[in-house]
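task queued by scheduler; priority normal; single chain, no ligands, no partner chains; default sampling; output format set to structure tokens
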Amino acid sequence: MKIAMLEPIGISNDLLKNYENELKSLGHEFVSYDNRVEKEDEIIKKAEGADVIIITNLPLSANVINSCSNLKLISVAFTGIDHIDLKACNKNNILVSNSSGYSDQSVAELVFGMVINLMRNMVKCDRATREGKKRFGMIGNELSGKKFGIVGTGNIGTQVAKIAKAFGCKLFGNDITENKEAKALGLKYLGLKELMKESDVVSVHTPLMESTINLINKEKIELMKKEAILINCARGPIVNSEALAKALNEEKIAGAGIDVFYMEPPIPKDHPLLNANNTLLTPHVAFATKEAFIKRSEIVFNNIYKWLEDEPQNVVNK
């Protein structure tokens, strides 16, 4: 079998070499690339002859997939798979396995970095200190005792609930199915509109699907408390950026922490959130820690090992 890693997955050369040696010891060919290309003809050239490819969030169109005549498995070093044409994969009998679970902790921790940063005005305080100012106008709020709403209570949402509980928050959740582990933490499920009304913090963790595009829209944002903050470390299109920016600038909500956008950063200079009040923006880094990348590599290569043993795991399209 030929296995091709089409882009870096954030691990050391030594660790990558260990995986390469293991695959070669099993009689397989392994090639890897230390750069990322996005032109379709270049992707096709890298994947030429491969039975298995490894990617992160590199877009794979139907044209690319149809051009990879030997391809049988895509091991995705990412949780979301909305960048892959699954219809083309199904048509060509190609399995797609993701790496769900690798970034549960890293994403959850960034959520609370954002929440505390916003509630305690940390960026403003830093700027004021450097400018020789005092704390006037910098009085913040405590997270303890606040109502914490989680939209999407899967693995990451449940990890967020665990941390919120440790801070002494009251937990609310919304999802199409109720998570027993989340409920055991004391989380109460509400309709989305009610959650938006009741919560002091709303954190979005639902996957991107047709039904979740623009889920947090103008109507939902207008239901939020004036003192509430919104966090999105899931997918950009779930939250309406224009409506959110308007609500922030009109002081209808207190703040927002955003790690994801309609496109991958860099975002355009005229993006509405760049000029929105009390907004903390990060360039899609919630998943990106050294620890998470090591976990991710283990899942990515275990997906391949299990598939070679005819016991595929983490399959998302069958």
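post-processing summary
- The chain has a mean pLDDT of 97.
- The radius of gyration is 21 Å.
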